[in-house]
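From: lab user (bench 3)
To: helpdesk
Subject: output format question, protein + iron/sulfur cluster

Hello, I'm new to running complex predictions and I'm not sure whether the block I got back is the full result or only part of it. Here's what I submitted:
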Amino acid sequence: MSGAPAGSAPESAAPRSADCSRCLALCCVGPAFAASADFAIDKPAGTPCPHLGADHACGIHAQLQERGFPGCVTFDCFGAGQQVVEVTFGGASRREPAMFAALEVLRPLHEVLALLDEAAGHPASPTHGPAAADLRARVEEMVTRDADALAAVDVGAVRREAGAVFDGVVAEAHAGLQGRDLRGADLVGQDLRRRDLRAARLRGALLLGADLRGVDLDRAELLGADLRGADVRGARLAGALLLTGPQLVAARGDAATTVPAHLRRPPHWIPSAP
Ligand code: SF4
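Helpdesk reply: Thanks, we reran it on our side. This is the complete output you should expect:
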């Protein structure tokens, strides 16, 4: 959320990544916040966060964790914010309420696109790559539609179709392997260092605060897994399937953690294990 000051360039030009300098801080205004471990305050929908500056930059960007806003650190619009401002609203310079509705549609579509980018090119799933590329092309057309047409997009249907593609990708990548089926498992706070999680199916698993230090997650499917606070220092994540940038940001890694080539190593990860 509203990370980079207005006008500054992003650290990375990774595809489907947020570039706050090209947005109008829509994510700091549109959603409602409920005071929780992720957000220190209640905030109604459509109301600017009190920490948001007139320049669309966050006034506490360097202290988000300490000030009780870790949810802002892990949030990623996958580039939907700049798509709303620059494409849907043609380069508008002021926020307007209709932008928030467009963001609610575009953000999940951009997340699907980020995952399809990986699925379309994954070397372990050459057969399903074309299906992923076909759906990606159709979703890329959807995200260019005007605000009225976006409102008519059935996001749930897109997600279901993408889910079927991801199932095929994972099945192909796991062919001949005997990974554990831990889909949706509650693994909160567990010590998983001795578990063989290679090729495990961890879709939607709750891994909050789990100890994954040094664990090999090669070909483990992590679609939608909650990695908030998970200790992934030294873990091998480079070969994990369907892992996104926000999941990495939410976890605690270090210089020894390997990450997929298409993702950026979170800059706040500690440089090495203590
Ligand atoms: S704390 Fe900063 S990043 Fe979070 S909503 Fe407020 S202005 Fe945006």
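A quick orientation on your result: The chain has two domains: 20-172, 179-274. Let us know if anything else is unclear.
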